[in-house]
Amino acid sequence: MVGFAIVAYAGDAKTALMKALDEARDGNFTKARSLVEESTQSINDAHNEQTKLLSKEAGGDDMDVTFIMVHGQDTLMTTMMLKDEVQYFIDEYERLDKIEKKLGIEKN
C-alpha cells in the first residue's frame, strides 16, 4: 500500500504543479505560487512514505520490490523535477509580464 500512497501523493503534486503553470500563463502569479506550495506538501507526504520503506529496509526487513513501488519512485522523482521547472517558468512568465506591461503590449 505504501507504493500506492507514493503514487497518489506525487500525482496530487503533479496536478497542482500543472495548474500552477496554467495560472502563471494567465498572469495569476500569486495563485501559481500558492499551488506550488500546495504541491510541496504532497511531495513531502510522498517522501515520508518513501522514508518508511527505507527505514524498514535499513532495519533488516526483506523488501519485495513491486512494480507499483517502482512506479511510485518514478512518479515522485519526475514530479520533484517538474516542481523545479514550474518554479522557473513562473518566474519567466512574471518577468515577461512585467516587460510587456512596460512596453504597453496587451495580451490576447
TrEMBL record:
Keyword entries, A-Z: Cytoplasm, Magnesium, Metal-binding, Phosphoprotein, Phosphotransferase system, Sugar transport, Transferase, Transport
GO molecular function term, any single one: transferase activity
Cofactor notes: Binds 1 Mg(2+) ion per trimer.
Highest rank taxon of the organism: Bacteria
Locations listed in the record: Cytoplasm
Principal subcellular localisation of the protein: cytoplasm
Cofactor(s) listed: Mg(2+)
Residues the record lists as Phosphohistidine modifications: H71
Residues at which Mg(2+) binds: D74
Catalytic machinery residues: H71
The protein's assembly and partners: Homotrimer.
Protein name per its UniProtKB record: PTS system lactose-specific EIIA component
Gene source species: Pediococcus cellicola
Lineage: Bacteria, Bacillati, Bacillota, Bacilli, Lactobacillales
